Structure formats: structure tokens, C-alpha cells
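GNAT family N-acetyltransferase
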Amino acid sequence: MAARPVIAAGGRHVGALLAALHRAAFPPAECWDEAAMAAVLAMPGVLVGLGSLGEESVPGGFVIGRVAADEAEILTLAVTGTARRRGLGRALLDWMASQVAAHGAGRLILEVSAGNDAARALYRGAGFTEIGRRRAYYPDGSDALVLERVWVGQEPAAL
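Predicted C-alpha cells:
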């Protein structure tokens, strides 16, 4: 039986842990270090979810989002190799959608590398649609796809 993802809210004190998870999930040129995490965590409206699988004590991923008025943005979502394809990414997305909806947002946006097929499939399966493209956005030269999920007037889980 597969372990059920468990998501818990994080705070400003988890910057070092988030940086380590980010290093484990992204190519070196795209990693956020502890100083970058501290800067992001200090921004107004930021929400952090830490995810683990079942009874595992070490998180296998996290999501950072930010609410501004009636919309929100996922700033980063990271799932480490051993936790991938086990439902944790989707659980983190759903957790963030419910959190930002509770804060009054009716729209959630994010960026993903056009070359990240696994992440694109995850976001498509969670109801995100492409609304734009940023050419040569990432250090490797790949484009960033801008995606959104809208639920104005509905609960995000109903999508």
C-alpha cells in the first residue's frame, strides 16, 4: 500500500531545510540557496507547505506560494527523487490551492520549464492551463510556460 502524503505548514525558520530540498530536486544552476530562501520567506503573503510520505520524518518536498489580493503564485515546488511519482507533488499543489483560496485568492499561477515534461503533466492533471511563455527564461535556455488554475466562485478541490 502506498504511503499517503502528509502536508504541514512551514514557517520562516525552515530556510536551510528548504534550500537542501531544493538542491536535491533541481539542477545546480536553478537551486535557491539559504539566503534566497530567507528572502522569499520574508516576503508578505508567503505560505509554505512541507510534504512527507506517510510516517517518514524527513520531508520529501515543499511548496512556496504567495497571495496578493485575489490571486496567488506558486514561487517554487520541489519534490526530491525518492518521493517523486508517489502523489506528493499533487498533494502539495492541492494543499497550496486550498490555502490560497482560504486567503481570498481565486486564481493560482506558476511557471514551469517547457522541458520539464513530468512537472507539466502534474500541473495539467491538477487543472492548470497555459496562458503565456517567457522565452529563454531558465539558465539552460529553456522557455518558461506560465500556467494558471482558476476557481473563482468554486472551491479549488471542485475543479
